[in-house]
């Protein structure tokens, strides 16, 4: 089951007044500071989540192409330095875990459209603050392309399925459905 985290910005006394309500809905409630800092924390978290999911999907895809059993590869990653939430809690490969969107044709979860939206907000914020985010920018591009190719209503972990469909043919041309 998901554990919601509320990242809250605003006046501290107002946060304290609402904190009990937040704890009824989420497992973690964190005061981030002034107005806007809660949203900033969420954007940063979701940018890292999207980058980690793409990395996990690429890694699992490569391992499968190299002949590794995906459950075995996930087990190895999750006891090694490659362990991350996208591999040990929300694995994007169908059949590796139960109870996650990849086990249900990528239905449910956090939609690709929502991830693309959050990455767009992160991109705009990075541009406004002159902060380089090359991996965040690439993740934004990947999720935007996914939205245009029929993944908009699937969970963002469907990036694994997207990458599988984009595998290069022997002549270097990508597969097209």
Key attributes of the depicted protein:
177 residues, 2 domains, two-stranded parallel ribbon, 2 strands, 7 helices, 6% strand, mainly alpha, N-(1-d-carboxylethyl)-l-norvaline Dehydrogenase, domain 2
Strand content: 5-15%
Question: How many structural units, i.e. domains?
Answer: 2
- Our Rg estimate from Cα atoms comes to 18 Å
Query: Can you tell me the CATH class of the largest domain?
Result: Mainly Alpha
Strand line-up in the sheet with most strands: 1-2
The residue fraction in helices comes out at 55-70%
Largest sheet: 2 strands, parallel
CATH architecture of the largest domain: Orthogonal Bundle
H/E topology pattern: EHEHHHHHH
Low-confidence stretches: none
GO molecular function: 3-hydroxyisobutyrate dehydrogenase activity; NAD binding
Pathway: Amino-acid degradation; L-valine degradation
Enzyme class: oxidoreductase
Keywords: Branched-chain amino acid catabolism, NAD, Oxidoreductase
